Amino acid sequence: MAQTDVAGRAPAVRTLDGVVDGLADGVSPSRARQLRMVAAMWGRALEHWPDGVTPPARSGELFGDEALRTFWRLATTGRLWMRERDVGKAPSGATLRIVRDCLGILAAEVCPGEAVWLPTVAQPEPKAVVPPAQLPVLYRKLADMASDAPVERGGIALSKEDRVRLLALVAVVLDTGARSSELAAMRLDDLGAGEGTVWVRRSPQNASDLPQRVVAGQAGVGEDVVHRVMTGRGGVAPGSRAKVLAALERLGEGGPAVERYALRPGTAVALRQWLRVRAGLVARLQGTQSALWVSLKANQWQGEPGFALRPQGIRKAYTRGAVALNGLMAGRYGWSPLPTTLEQLRRTVDVEPDRPAPHGGGTA
Fold first, then answer.
1. 32: Cβ–Cβ under 8 A, 6 or more apart, which residues?
2. CA nearest 151: which of 326, 316, 320, 328?
3. Distance between CA 322 and CA 242 in Å, rounded?
4. What is the pLDDT along the chain (364 residues), one digit of tens a residue?
5. Is 356 strand, coil or helix?
6. What CATH code would you report for 204-255?
7. How many CB atoms lie within 10 A of CB 204?
8. How far apart are CA 318 and CA 351, in angstroms?
9. Residue 75: C-alpha distances to residues 12, 52, 83, 240, 297 (Å)
10. Could you write out the DSSP letters of every residue in 190-233?
11. Keywords for this entry (predicted)?
């Protein structure tokens, strides 16, 4: 067992706690919680360190091959959970992937530039998607429904607002392959004239893990400015946006590449229907709401509808609407059921941008 200090934690783990504290402000809240979980798992691992294996004494030694392999053996058997009722329960594949990713993030901070061993975690089998041959039929049905569709059948109801937003959302995904985070970043000024094009910010998959304090220091701007640029939000002066994008380039992250996609006529129709509904939703809000996709109802955090949807909100709205729409359309000729997750729908799409732009390219 490793030596502990007066707080009962090994010095290596106390150092790791400090590393996590330094990263916390630059990552998403969920990632910060995951990093703290992995640091706590390291503390638990050192308490159960096997005899005959030298325990790591310094933070850098936590990421040596032997130490990581020992940690991983303990983690996969469920011995590192903090709650006693969970001890011995084997972690799911999704949890193991989170632990592995957090180990990589911490190793990059503690041992910068060094190659470390990280375990391989099997990826789950992807869920079934809409067959490519069915996509044109599905798209035509959705475009037709933008102006005329049932809203209730057999006890299943889908409000007009829900239907209009869902159809516009699905049509945009079919034309762009946008992820939920990229949909959440869309603003009104990303739409071209006549809703014939849209700019999509292709943010890196690990954008939420990039320390925003590092980017802010490189760019000479506040962390709030970095956050707005990386999430595609408005309210950033062009000069500040350019500084952030240049810093992202220097740091090797590539920045949020922006691509323009041509939208089919049916998508333009669906978007125009949604923009009319959206205008009514945001009319009562104070200030300017620039997000393209907004909430339909008030919730516990926002007392009014019309606020920008975050990625999780977009995914939930899509799933709820897809389930209801599939029920409404069940058995109708030519209807191919929508996948019930947005990612399933997105993976059916194979499209090319109308025009790729340099990082941070302008709107249409």
1. 20, 23, 24
2. 328
3. 39
4. 444 443 446 788 888 999 888 888 777 778 888 899 999 999 888 888 888 888 888 888 899 899 999 999 998 888 887 666 666 677 888 888 888 888 888 888 888 878 888 888 776 655 555 566 566 666 666 666 655 555 555 566 677 888 889 889 988 998 999 989 899 989 998 898 888 899 888 765 444 445 566 677 777 887 777 777 766 655 677 778 778 777 766 655 444 567 889 998 888 988 998 999 999 888 877 666 788 999 888 765 556 778 888 888 899 888 888 888 777 777 766 667 778 888 888 887 888 887 654 444 444 4
5. strand
6. 1.10.260
7. 15
8. 21
9. 18, 19, 14, 44, 42
10. GB-GGG-EEEEEE--TTGGGS-HHHHHHHHTS-HHHHHHHHTT-
11. DNA recombination
280 sits in which H/E element: helix 265-282
Compute φ and ψ for 56, nearest 5 degrees: -65, 135
199 φ/ψ angles, rounded to the nearest 5 degrees:
-90, 135
DSSP 188: G
Ordered DSSP codes for 89-146:
PPPPHHHHHHHHHHHHHHHHHHSTT--------PPPPPPP---GGGHHHHHHHHHHHT
CATH code of the domain occupying 132-201+256-356? 1.10.443
Pull the structure tokens for residue 127: 């869920």
Report the candidate in 353, 347, 326, 360 with the shortest Cα–Cα distance to residue 247. 360
The domain ranges of the chain are: 11-110, 132-201+256-356, 204-255
Q: Which two tokens stand for residue 263?
A: 């939208």
Q: Could you tell me the pTM of the whole model?
A: 0.54
The pair of three-digit structure tokens given for residue 298, joined into one six-digit string: 């008030």
